[in-house]
Amino acid sequence: MNSKALIAEGIGTFALVFLGAGAAAIGIGGLVGVALAHGITVMVFAYAFGSISGSHINPAVTFAMALSGKLAWNETISYWVAQLLGAVAAAGTLFYVLGGSQSGLGATIPANGVSFGQTIVLEAILTFFLVNTIIRTTASKENSGWAPIAIGATLVAAILMGGPLTGASLNPARTFGPAFYAGSLDVFWVYLLGTFVGAGAAAGLNRWLSN
Fold it and tell me: Is the dihedral of CA 16, 18, 19, 24 positive or negative?
């Protein structure tokens, strides 16, 4: 197992949760600020760590890469552990610097009136868009230099649409870290199911398009 890749995944996921969830917890900049904090962080770390680990920083992305045959399942599990540890560490740091969980720590939970079923469907669709962008833009070396920009922009667009409804997680680690401290782990399964369904659908589409 490549320890450098795992460290890169842990740091990248820490940054995404600390900056993305932190922006949501603080609230300055509103939805646009939250979307940009997530999108820019993903873009920057794709450039910084893409050559080391692929800069998944998202268990759903790692799941899609495993389904696509680009990552062995033992490596996949190690990636998941590194991502979840990075997310929990980031949320714990937010808990400390913000003086507790009163802010909600940027936790992603369904808005009032949004059912679990609706949350699963929306998270699946938005994650499909994100993972599809990741797979298709990184498939060719000619386009790979632009891939981080396209991926970050897709995440920004997804959060602008889904943020008011589900928090637009698109990332189980992004949900798990804040939920661990904010007491909302009871809805984690909803985001896990939705994001993995979306990621799996994107991997399946890519296999079909590539045949």
Answer: positive
